[in-house]
UniProtKB/TrEMBL annotation:
This is DUF742 domain-containing protein. It comes from Streptomyces coryli. Pfam families: DUF742. InterPro entries: DUF742.
Length: 130
């Protein structure tokens, strides 16, 4: 077996050129937009994509049929979070994706956080298994 500098051992492309090409050379979304937090939730709006849309955008909208965090989208697509943040910001600007910012601690406490009890039980169960 020979070493291939384009592969990282997992069969995925390790070249830094590919992410650069995917994002069109951008490291951030629109100039006035803040980068999406990794815990922000995104969902596809259902608007059809133009036929010439690059495959990564299609993969994102296909994967986001239900709510997913930015980090989950990144993991599912095996793309770096920075690349996914740029692509998602493009899709949001075009109206193909909606983003919901994560709840802050004060909002979560004020809303009564119905999931806090469930998350506590999950954490307790995990601690017992370890």
């Amino acid at each position: 077996m020979t070493w291939d500098p384009q592969q990282d051992g997992s069969g995925r492309d390790a070249s830094p050129v590919r992410p650069y090409v995917i994002t069109g050379g951008r490291a951030a979304g629109a100039a006035d937009a803040e980068p999406l937090p990794l815990e922000a939730l995104v969902v596809a709006t259902g608007l059809p994509l133009p036929p010439q849309t690059q495959p990564e955008y299609r993969r994102i909208t296909d994967r986001c049929r239900g709510l997913l965090s930015v980090a989950e989208v990144s993991a599912h697509l095996e793309l770096s979070p920075g690349v996914v943040q740029v692509l998602l910001s493009d899709l949001i600007a075009a109206g193909h994706i909606q983003a919901r910012p994560p709840l802050t601690t004060s909002e979560s406490t004020a809303a009564g956080d119905p999931y806090r009890d469930v998350l506590g039980k999950v954490l307790h169960g995990l601690e017992n298994r370890l």
